Amino acid sequence: MSLPTHQNYVNGQYLANKTGATFDVINPATGQVIYHMEIADDFIKQQAIDSAKQGFAVWSAMDATQRSRLLLKAVALLREQNDELAKIEVLDTGKPWQEASVVDVESGADAIEFFASLAPAIEGNQQSVGDDFYYSRREALGVCAGIGAWNYPLQIACWKSAPALACGNSMIFKPSEETPLGALKLAEVFTQAGIPDGVFNVVQGAGDVGAWLSHHSDIEKVSFTGEVGTGKKVMAGAATTLKDVTMELGGKSPLIVFEDADIDNAISGAMLGNFYTQGEICTNGTRVFVHRSVVNTFVERLLERTRNNIVVGDPMHPDTNFGALISKKHHQLVLDYIQKGIDEGATLLEGGEALSPSDSAGGYFVAPTIFSDVTDEMTICREEIFGPVMSILTFDDEDEVIRRANDTEFGLAAGIFTQDITRAHRVIHQMQAGICWINNYGASPVQMPVGGYKQSGIGRENGIETLRHYTQIKSVYVGMTPLESPF
Ligand code: NAD
Description:
Layout: E1 5-6, E2 8-10, E3 13-15, E4 22-27, E5 32-38, H1 42-61, H2 64-80, H3 82-93, H4 97-100, H5 104-118, E6 126-129, E7 132-140, E8 143-147, H6 153-166, E9 170-174, H7 181-192, E10 200-202, H8 207-215, E11 221-225, H9 228-239, E12 244-248, E13 254-257, H10 263-275, E14 287-291, H11 295-309, H12 328-343, E15 347-350, E16 354-355, E17 365-366, E18 369-372, H13 379-382, E19 389-395, H14 398-405, E20 413-417, H15 421-430, E21 435-438, E22 457-458, E23 471-478
Parallel strand pairs: 1-5, 8-9, 8-11, 9-10, 11-12, 13-14, 13-20, 14-19, 18-19, 20-21
Antiparallel strand pairs: 2-3, 4-5, 6-7, 7-23, 12-22, 15-18, 16-17
Bound molecules: nicotinamide-adenine-dinucleotide.
Nicotinamide-adenine-dinucleotide binds near residues 234 and 386.
């Protein structure tokens, strides 16, 4: 059976490239090629730029209320098409249907709904200066670029396009080459909703297409989600034309369990923060610091729940709650990290091996893995693994754990579990991280800004705050009296 070939999406429709070059997309749960994707060649790239500029002219001139209404139509369509879109995400990413069908499309739609509702509320201000006055306008930036990672492909496309479009910008989005289909479906939805052609274009390809976007002089901003190292390259590219950047990067976040914590709740947090989406989440609390006095109880119940409650298998099966890693290469990388953990002296308590579930042969599965006796300098404790590998560390007092938790170049997230309300706030205020949780881990409602401290990022996504990252202020001074001039 011949496999489908998908094209880039430019100016409100699919557009064939001139070179005919394609790449293969693999279902991580089977290792099989599922479709081909055309690469954005020079023709597609130029068309995308031209179309995004035209789209911007039409869209930014539209009344914000009208933009809002069209975006809300897209929200309704996304929700109507939830199951079809969720299935695409499962096949592209290997994550469980159980998650994608309730989180991925829904959280994307939520973001568009939130920013669409805010669009008509964007305002400037006015101030008197003697008899004169000045006023400010919040204006759109122009053509923005979005570059996405593969773990939440559709959600990332929504989280970037929602504030960009609500503020009147147009966007050229490049999804990860591992998971390119979801963004195309979002583009279709925007067109179905009546959003003008060119407002949201999707170009396909690997890092070179991303680098082209980062450098392009007609693009005013680039919003990037991916690894720290790639983010630095994107920022360097953006510097060549002084583009604004948003950087949503990686992490090695601490999750601290104090002696007075509700242990079962803390275990839920640690499991969600390490095994949800088979560990491929940027905010994961992969360094689990547990107070020495409760570590035995914590580990015992954690192992019991991991052994009894995790169902690995065909991600489309409704019972599966733990899927396949994104690629063969990433699978090997995660296994290599596990080996390093063993070699450097951590105790492997659970998992540690590749799995081959009978209903999903050929997939890139790695068992949920738990290490104890991990120390701060071990590789598994310092580097982002982006897989289902939990490191348990013990601590004795508060100052010590704060210092150790912050001892990293990353600063994406942090979580603490304690029943002591004073300590909860005291400790969380000292965490060098942009996304923090007390007695929770991973919740990310659209109202809440997300983004990193230190090398985990620049700027924020979600929350009202993000409107500022997609607009620029124009100040207008109005002279009401004749100018005083010495000339
Ligand atoms: P990656 O950095 O390898 O790739 C991300 C995107 O950048 C892809 O679309 C890729 O094609 C593109 N790219 C690669 N080289 C480029 C270049 N030189 N110039 C421009 N673009 C280039 O990341 P990934 O492996 O796709 O995703 C995993 C990473 O993403 C992890 O580090 C994870 O923590 C991070 N992440 C962060 C967040 C967040 O919100 N902070 C969310 C999800 C994932």
